[in-house]
Amino acid sequence: MVLRVRYPNQKYDYVSNAAIDRLITQKQIGMFYRPSEKRWIDIEYGPLRKDGNAGYDGIERRNL
């Protein structure tokens, strides 16, 4: 999948889905377009991808 991104210099581009995480981590993009929500996501304030287990301190029930 290819996503549209906006760089901090206000230029737009299309990048692979796999590259988005790296670009976000390195703060090389300012925004990306999330087609499922039909809106632009600001990497400073918007909901981003999360680690699947982040923030959960409970018992791992899938292995019971």
Description:
The protein has a four-stranded antiparallel beta sheet. The protein has a domain at 2-31. The protein has one helix spanning 17-25, and strands at residues 2-6, 12-16, 31-34, 39-42. A hairpin with a 4-residue loop joins strand 3 and strand 4 (39-42). It has 64 residues and is of the alpha+beta class. The termini are far apart.
> For the report, how would you describe the main beta sheet?
4 strands, antiparallel
Which class do the helix and strand fractions yield?
A: alpha+beta
The rough form would be described as elongated
| Helix count from the secondary structure assignment | 1
Helix content: 10-25%
Low-confidence stretches at least 5 residues in length (pLDDT < 50)?
A: none
How are the SSEs ordered, and which strands pair?
Elements: E1 2-6, E2 12-16, H1 17-25, E3 31-34, E4 39-42
Antiparallel strand pairs: 1-2, 1-3, 3-4
Main traits of this protein?
single chain; 64 residues; 4-stranded antiparallel beta sheet; 1 helix; 4 strands; 14% helix
Short note summarizing the structure:
With 64 residues, the chain is an alpha+beta fold. It has a domain at 2-31. It is 14% helix and 28% strand.
